[in-house]
Amino acid sequence: MSAPQLVTIGGRRVRLTNLDKVLYPQTGTTKGEVIDYYTRIGEVMIPHIVGRPVTRKRWPDGVGTADDPGMVFFAKDLERGAPSWVRRMPIEHSGGPKEYPLVGDVPTLVYLAQVASLELHVPQWRFTPDGGRGFADRLVLDLDPGPGTGLPECAVVAGWARAILEGMGLEPYPVTSGSKGIHLYAALPPRQTTEQASALANELARAIEADHPDLVVSSMKKTERRGRVLIDWSQNNGSKTTIAPYSMRGRPHPTVAVPRTWEELDDPELRHLEFTEVLERIDEIGDPMAPLGFHAGGREAESGPLSAYIAKRSADRTPEPVPANPLGAAPATPGSERPVFVIQEHHATALHWDFRLEHDGVLVSWAVPRGVPHSYKRNNLAIQTEDHPMEYATFEGTIPVGEYGGGSVTIWDDGRYDLEKWRDDEIIATLEGRPGGPLGRVRLALIRTEGEGEKSSWLLHRMKTDADGRPQPDGEPVVASDQADEPRPRSGRAARRRPAVEERPKESNPPTAETSGRDLTKLPRAPEGTDAHRVMRATAATPAVAQRAAARWGEAAWAEAKWDGIRAVGVWDGHRLRLFARSGNDITHRYPELTGVDAGFGDQPCVVDGELVALEPDGRPSFPLLQTRMNLERAGDISREARRTPVRYYLFDVLAIDGHDLAGLPLRERRDELERIASRVIPAVAVPPVFDDVDVALDTSRMLRLEGIVVKDPSSRYLRGVRSESWLKVKLTRTQEVVIAGIRPGQGGRSSTFGALLLGIPGPDGLQYAGRVGSGFSDSTLRMLMNKLTPLRTDENPLVGVPRLDARDALWVRPELVGEVEYGEFTPGGILRHPRWRGLRPDKAPDEVVREDLPLQ
């Protein structure tokens, strides 16, 4: 068996064991493949199971065969050894409460797969904020074929049920169960009890049976099921569960419960699908059941305290609670339990803390960029936001990028509070957080300083005394969760480098060229009459280039993080920063947060080299996120997206200062000059740390989930436009630049764009076919790519070696655009396995693309 691995997924550490253990003997499917499936399917699966208690069927030793099935365990309680971060909720049983896992993120799915939970089953209701059983939000009909019938008969019955449900205003969605039959799901109107849902399902089953008694039965008696399809309505009972959409099945073959289109049900060759086919169809057509995601068709409302909250969110696109009732909960009655508060750490476009107090049936909310002040000597800004529903008091999860407030939300602390004063311009309360939590017991005041209602400005103040007039002790400074455990460089030069986002205090007497340790006046200057702009353009066109690492590096090497961004050479003229791409194109206008302000380099002109980087809410660099900025041209679009997706400029070299060329200096000396000129730059510009120990750098990059590292010789000169062993890139994630050569038409929700891109990599015989990619595209990316590819349409196939099956419906394009994909591996035939789109590379030309996994010559 393979050795155990400790991996980080979504910021959580999961121990994986026996990845090569075969769980499906008939197909040779391993545990590693099962974990890979749940990792990749999580994006579409989680919306259908979030907030619901999960019961599981586990096959620790595999499913076996039809003749020798493996031992299966039915699990409700979460195992004692489960990670503490796996969310759980108790449900009372006759033998006492059992704690059920809740699946709201990919790490939890991976953990459940690690313990061989192949099948995940959920009810048709979700937990309420207080841990109770909520209303039914989905109706399910289980069409179970009896002896002598199969999927074709179930499809016929599904069509009859569809006609009745649509006549009632309920839109049904079919799912082939992966076992025998078909499930039909439909969103229910608000506030339906599970008993009402069961009664409705029973009446539907009986009505269809009455019209088609020869093929349909609603009775559970097995003696009546031969040659007929049972409509099992009982799974709407609050104590019953149904196999979750996209769950694998513990059958001899690794089949899946798959949402299907109605057109597919008309296919006489309809069959159950295996997990590899499901991943391919998701890449091609997305999730046909997406409208039932998260909240089973949650509805919007136009008035009431929560109308602003509801108007900003789409229930089918965010895991946040989106109530049907805009009026909020009923206000607490006098003498009831103290009101609640919650403080949530929110890694959105900018990290902040959401401060929420229960009041009049809603959570009155403020965004606090620096969190709760730890001392009465300081006040922190708080911006009032829209009121939130009471359900938000327990919300944790990741809001998808592109949605309002996109980013991860975790509870920093919560508890109850005692209210002293609540006025329109002042609130005073004593909050008591969780035992052992970061807040403790603290008396706080909110004081309005400007504006009214949403977006008004307040000060959050820690009172000097408690409610009894006694001195109130200081608390601990608020620290983001990802900073609290951030690894620190351990030795050497790295120990004295500042973190990438640390803000340095301004110096009263910054060093000059004469006091920086080297006399720059002795370095060569640019020719007279050559302005900084022209010098910068020449440098941008030929920056130094890293070579792929083919061997070990010298002991004197140091390492820098590879930030998964795009290269940019910057020229500072003493007042303004201009940015140029590797191609030499001027990209200054695209990043006004860097170029439209005083970047802080001082009076001396300089030329610097670095990467433009966009950060996910958890602080991880994201090339796909950067794509939202790279191709914008209109000022309005740029300004709007700059607020949503700000970009950082991470510097790693300086090429010229005050007209003096530094390229001939050793890297260690250029680095000293870089740190000097960047000592007072704005927070969006930074000089990340370097590591003297390359192995430590690799370990840290893995821990922080970075793209990789660049190993450099500190004695090396800056070699413009040259690949050399002085700079070696070491990737931790497999990425490949590709040339777009064609598209395959889309279906369903992608019918107006495309289903997949056909890719090529230049080779000795031409543009060699490298496979197709159909996943990783947002709706806006699909539209953007379609607009760019349509003018490039051609009748000529530019690819070499494309299989006839992939070429049969291809629409060819001139191979002029370069993109980048993440992938699992190359097949022996040179095809990318499991590619996922990362974005366009406008800084690269097609003839620059090389296959990354080939050995260096």
UniProtKB/TrEMBL annotation:
Q: Which reaction is the catalytic activity of this chain?
A: ATP + (deoxyribonucleotide)n-3'-hydroxyl + 5'-phospho-(deoxyribonucleotide)m = (deoxyribonucleotide)n+m + AMP + diphosphate
Residues in domain ATP-dependent DNA ligase family profile? Answer: 640-760
**Entry's EC annotation:** 6.5.1.1
Residues of the region (Disordered) are: 314-333, 465-531
Which EC class is the enzyme in? Answer: ligase
GO molecular function: any one? metal ion binding
Q: Which family does it belong to?
A: In the C-terminal section; belongs to the ATP-dependent DNA ligase family. In the N-terminal section; belongs to the LigD polymerase family.
Q: Which PANTHER family match?
A: BIFUNCTIONAL NON-HOMOLOGOUS END JOINING PROTEIN LIGD
Its name, as the record gives it, is: DNA ligase (ATP)
What's the source species for this entry?
Microbacterium immunditiarum
Lineage runs: Bacteria, Bacillati, Actinomycetota, Actinomycetes, Micrococcales
